Amino acid sequence: MTAEAGDPARVSVVDGVTLESRFRDVLDALFAFVGFFSRDGILLDTNQAPLTAAGLERADVVGKRFVDLTWFSHSAEERARVAEAIARAADGQPSRFETSVVSMRGGVLAIDAAFAPLRGVDGNVRYVIGTGVDVSVRRQAENELRRNRERLEEAQRLAHLGTWEWDIVKNEVSWSDELYQIYGVDRGTHVPTYESFLGSVHPDDREHTANVLRLAMQNLSPFAYDHRIVRPDGSFRMLHTRGQVAAGGGRALRLVGTCWDITRRWEAMRAAEAARAEAESARGELERILERVSDGFVALDRAWRYRYVNGSGGRLLGREAASLIGKHVWTEFPEGRGQRFQLAYQQAIDEQRPIHLREHYPPWDRWFENRIYPSPDGLSIFFTDVTEQQKIQDELRASAAELRALATRLSEIREEERRVIARELHDQVGQALTALKLDLAGLRGQLGSGASAEAERRLRAMDGLVDQTLETTRRISATLRPAVLDDLGLPAAIRWQAGEFTQRTGVPCEARLPEEEISIGPAASLALFRILQEALTNVARHAQARHVRVALARDGEAAVLVVADDGRGYASDEISSRRSLGLVGMRERALALGGETIVTGEPGRGTTVRARVPACAQEPA
Known about the structure:
Elements: E1 13-14, E2 17-18, H1 19-29, E3 33-37, E4 43-46, H2 48-54, H3 58-61, H4 76-90, E5 95-102, E6 108-119, E7 125-134, H5 136-159, E8 161-167, E9 172-175, H6 177-183, H7 194-200, H8 203-219, E10 223-230, E11 236-248, E12 251-261, H9 263-292, E13 296-301, E14 306-309, H10 311-317, H11 321-324, H12 329-332, H13 340-351, E15 355-361, E16 366-375, E17 378-385, H14 387-447, H15 453-480, H16 483-488, H17 490-505, E18 509-512, H18 522-543, E19 548-555, E20 558-565, H19 572-576, H20 581-592, E21 596-601, E22 607-614
Parallel strand pairs: 18-19
Antiparallel strand pairs: 1-2, 3-4, 3-7, 5-6, 6-7, 8-9, 8-12, 10-11, 11-12, 13-14, 13-17, 15-16, 16-17, 19-20, 20-22, 21-22
Helix pairs in contact: 14-15, 17-18, 18-20
């Protein structure tokens, strides 16, 4: 910088050293950036600090327009701001602001910059002086502090956690933003005080809250408590408050603390407590119900320990119910290991499906019925001693078997009687009627033409009556026991019966019989033939059918007869009715030989009778 007349930097010499030299030494020793500019922004001189920061020499910058230097190469916006500040200073208007420059390390420094006019002795602005302080570290600290504060506020918001401070001496209270949100008040209008805080506490919690804080201030001790607040909209919040006492001179000066909004947890705990109480009540009611039932009931966990035994269960097991709780079932009853009941328990646990079991328990020689219901936690088992029921059922089954055997025997006797009567009708009555017919023919020949008209008429009437009686005798004989069944077998008998049915009812009856001869024993043939007769009788009486189909087949070791019609069809209640003796008879005939008869039907779509018996079945003894 060149000294001019009236210039503040006029050169003076003191002890052989110029003032300018001393002034530069002082400026170069400063960490602040200092520069002298012409009114149009040309850098006239600068101290060493900005040169060192940018890695430049004085010759690189002096005499050049300040904003065109590399310090501002990173931002056109900052370049314009600095140029405007220099222009304002040249017009006599100082300014201060924060800008940024490029450092030699490639980073960007934050600079607290100021530009001011430098006037001559005449009061006119001759130059512009600029200063700058590197505030990058401070700015980083401020930014980090701001980020930390934002993170803290976000954490408080997410955790519903507010902070507060009460200056007891000044009676001033400060809240964090989240605490305003928790209390449901507006930061711009609500002024928190200790009195307003107590006023917002739920009336039932207010005295306790005041006492906690009073004791903390007296004892200078930390404090923690839960309390409810009432928000302006009338809603409740549950808060957990913790705090410390800042003391001085043996007395409390400040209280600082946090308030955690635990409303959801509190409500969840209350709901859980209510649910627990309800569950306990339901459990008590369930136990009272289980104590009233006559069935035994036990609950086992997955380790086979008793969790619950009702009174009936204890009596059936021969133990005091309460004495079994917590004990291992197979330790208490080792004789049950390997029994069907243990296997059923394990199967229910493994497959997680209910099992109904009625089984004899050899160790006690008793019958038990168990209904086993699994869950992931174990088993619930209802059990009943059904020994007496089982005895009654065994007796009923034995009685039913005896009745079935008796019915079968009666059927055999009836079939034998039919066979004898049919033979007698065919052999004796048939032969007698045939002889009578021959005698009538001989008598007509003896009378010749000399017989009177009356005698001739009577002879013709007698001859017709004999023919009619012969036909009736043959029909009754065939109905009682068709000779074709014994002589030609079941297929021929079915074909004959189908034709007879068509002739008698006018309803076509189609017989589908195997082309090759099949082997069917006499007992099976007779049973299937009688089932066929009963089925066709039902068709004629009830079906209103237009067509009937009869089929016979051999299926493995069984002979199968199917009779199907297209009539009105049986309803399900009619099929299952025990009052339909015809259906019952068909089922019993097949059952007597170890077979079955299944009748299916649907109203309007016909009925099908399917009989299946062992082909080589023998008559029951």
